[in-house]
Amino acid sequence: MFAAYAARIDRDQPLNGLELGDRPAPEARPGWTTVNVKAASLNHHDLWSLRGVGLGEDKLPMILGCDAAGIDQDGNEVVLHSVIGQAGYGVGPREGRSILTEKYQGTFAEQVSVPEWNVLPKPKELSFEEAACLPTAWLTAYRMLFTNAGVRPGDSVLVQGAGGGVATAAIVLGKAAGLKVFATSRDEAKRKRALELGAVEAVESGARLPQRVDAVIETVGAATWSHSIKSLKPGGTVVISGATSGDRPSHAELTRVFFLELKIVGSTMGSKDELGDLLSFCAATGVRPVIDETLPLDRAREGFERMEAGGQFGKIVLTV
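Above: the chain sequence. Below: its structure as tokens.
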């Protein structure tokens, strides 16, 4: 079957390790189901995998891709939850976990195999392309906002780095949930797009906000960390799920953290139940993922290049 996969690890030039070509189809195994992929979406995790983060040389070649929607072997339209337990059957409360492409082959292929537990029904209101955007970036944003930041309608939120998948999702979900959303970006076009999606104000990265906020959605890392801390109200929360600009900020702002009793919460992906809630939320409210570009799987390299350059606003989707 045709697939986009990591053939080599290159920490400095990750796309040097990306190959497109034939890979073995999944083999049947008890408790697992094979899904015919209709659409899959890119995440920065795929670039990190090509750099060897979470993916060892001993696992190569590894088909990339965490997110997908498709048709299972019983003919059902489904969405995949890509967090898999250590035993390969769901995720127990004390069980080690991995996501697709770390231990198991991913979704950038004609077929993917996952535990039956990891399959959810696709709402009829969502297209395959829309549904394929939800399991990683949108689920991450959903958990960051409503589980870990604990914000409620009327609260204020700053979303750093408008344009990325998680940041875009946070703006749209926050607006739909009645939050007052502020956004930042170095790019004027992305700031304008953030306003169109529902942000009340979009400013340049590092610029002072008109007010301090209850929570910050942080995925950029070192470049925006100081600004995130300085933007919080006393007792506020910064939720971090990524560090695309690096994980070592020059100013950690520790004095401000303890003096204002700020909270710093790490967040990774989300649970299967949260993904089910997100799917239902989108189906019921009309909220839809923002898709930057849709490409056929055989043009996956173009999608990777666009994501690496940071030129996208929203999700890049690959169709099979």
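The chain has nine helices and 18 strands.
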